[in-house]
Design a protein that fits this description.
single chain, mainly alpha, 15 helices
Length: 352
Amino acid sequence: MSQLKPTLHEQQSSKTKAFWFIVSFLVIAIVGLLYIKWWPYYQKGMLAADTHSIGTSILGDQSSATLSWKSAWDYAQVYFLSVWKAAILGILLSSLVQVLLPTQWLLKWLGKTSFGSTFVGGLASIPGMMCTCCSAPVAVGLRKKNVSVGAALAFWIGNPTINPATLVFMTFVLSWKFTLIRLFFGLILTFGISYLANRFVKDKQPIDIDQIITDNEPTGNFLSRWLKSLGNMVLFIVPAYVLSVLLIGAARVWLFPQIDSSANGLIAIIIFAIAGMLFVIPTAAEIPIIQTFMSLGLGGGPAAALLLTLPAISLPSLILVAKSFPKRVLFFVVGSVVILGIVSGLVGTIFL
């Protein structure tokens, strides 16, 4: 039996409801980001301009670090104290993406494998300014709404790599050369690699928005749907997140051995590119890490490799999004981050 065509009144009511759902999501996102990101980063920007520093390296004293669960716990404590507010906001926004934002609206802007959808996803990441693990839940929520791989990746990767606040801090603390290198390769990673990742998806078909039926939208009252979405995000994301951060925190003594003046060749660039890709840090933490490492003798090449790979992705964030993207896409992203990190390091060898 064919479905009855909605009346004009029902169509108008549905559009009005969708409009207020979108407005509600934007208000929640803006208030959350203002409190957790924008205002603190404004203050940190003033600090960076005055002192040419935004704090000490989150890695602490690597010379006394040992491979142990105490080392893992110590790092996890410092890390989660830095990101817990943003992590909660990321999980909250992920659940709200699934229940507030209309599927038709999302697919219209982010559902295609065209560069346009990837571009919109990358632009949407700019005000977020989250680290890779805090933006990962939102990317998961977008994929649950069938947003294209390219658009979801651009949002996930763009948050940490083209973060405007980090670029400002970097200019004051490191130099404008670091900022230009980061911006150049960050744009390639966010928009170029994300767009190319669409080619790794099987059976990719252009979405015909006109064929999407509003009856496919989830049914049930808003509160029950939101609590179910939030519960699923917390249940599946938080345990994996905590355990992976503990694991990578314990391994930091291997990933970042003691620095000396010999750690400046191509081999060092490759090692630091891989280590940076695996390691997990809060937003902008790459700046004091690089600042500290260079004071100990690290050259511009390995520093430039870390500049891109440290914030872009991490082992914990890859675990968080593992079920939302095809494996071949994630392998492509991992390889691309490492390769671009190495190229960034080679550029840094010449210009830094």
